[in-house]
Amino acid sequence: DFLFFWGGVFLITTTLVALFKKENELTPTKEETKGITDTYRLLFSIIKMPAVLTFCLLILTGKVGFSAADAVTGLKLVEEGVPKEHLALLAVPMVPLQIILPLIISKYTAGPQPLNTFYKAMPFRLLLGLEFCFLVWWTPKVRHEGGFPVYYYAVVLLSYALHQITLYSMYVAIMAFNAKVSDPLIGGTYMTLLNTVSNLGGNWPSTVALWLVDPLTVKECVGAQEQTCGTTVAAEV
């Protein structure tokens, strides 16, 4: 029902925009690109620049340190018995924070060195990864028959809030830097390239972390002598 409702809202609003929004008559400006071939040729020339290559290497590997904590923590909490609907409810108080944070952080990324905010937020985000590990370890110890105490959810909420601060500090800083270094004449193409690499730098470490969870998890078989549970098949047996 939720997806159906918002799908309907999306269709209605975009249809209204298509019907009633009129473009202003503007004098065509000089453009660097004319078609798909020119665009990709331009992207290739941009990415060959030494500074762009170095920056791409930075943003492709900069999120490896906290990818596992970001991708696996919520799943492990559910595995330890935290109801999924409770974790979903904890996302509601995060919405105002997610709206306010970019407004606050943008004041610090508007200067000549927006990546300073990225660098300063990184160690705190790495430390929060250790705190998430502690949270997963602590979860089964506070669980009781009725579920989890209120103070447990308060700790989870605070942890998520601190994580959002570091996450948005890095995200807004990268966006500000991409906007600053992009050539205005081809700003859209330039920024799209850098933002795509930035998104890829956040996605591939999470995918690898999720893939490695099972083989790196130590398991013991209770009541089955000389039986290992290292693989999914062995665990089912």
TrEMBL record:
<keyword id="KW-0812">Transmembrane</keyword>
<dbReference type="GO" id="GO:0016020">
    <property type="term" value="C:membrane"/>
</dbReference>
<feature type="transmembrane region" description="Helical">
    <location>
        <begin position="42"/>
        <end position="66"/>
    </location>
</feature>
<dbReference type="InterPro" id="IPR036259">
    <property type="entry name" value="MFS_trans_sf"/>
</dbReference>
<dbReference type="GO" id="GO:0008521">
    <property type="term" value="F:acetyl-CoA transmembrane transporter activity"/>
</dbReference>
<dbReference type="InterPro" id="IPR024371">
    <property type="entry name" value="AcetylCoA_trans_1-like"/>
</dbReference>
<dbReference type="GO" id="GO:0035348">
    <property type="term" value="P:acetyl-CoA transmembrane transport"/>
</dbReference>
<feature type="transmembrane region" description="Helical">
    <location>
        <begin position="117"/>
        <end position="138"/>
    </location>
</feature>
<keyword id="KW-0472">Membrane</keyword>
<feature type="transmembrane region" description="Helical">
    <location>
        <begin position="86"/>
        <end position="105"/>
    </location>
</feature>
<protein>
    <submittedName>
        <fullName>ACATN protein</fullName>
    </submittedName>
</protein>
<dbReference type="InterPro" id="IPR004752">
    <property type="entry name" value="AmpG_permease/AT-1"/>
</dbReference>
<feature type="transmembrane region" description="Helical">
    <location>
        <begin position="150"/>
        <end position="174"/>
    </location>
</feature>
<keyword id="KW-1133">Transmembrane helix</keyword>
<dbReference type="Pfam" id="PF13000">
    <property type="entry name" value="Acatn"/>
</dbReference>
<feature type="transmembrane region" description="Helical">
    <location>
        <begin position="6"/>
        <end position="21"/>
    </location>
</feature>
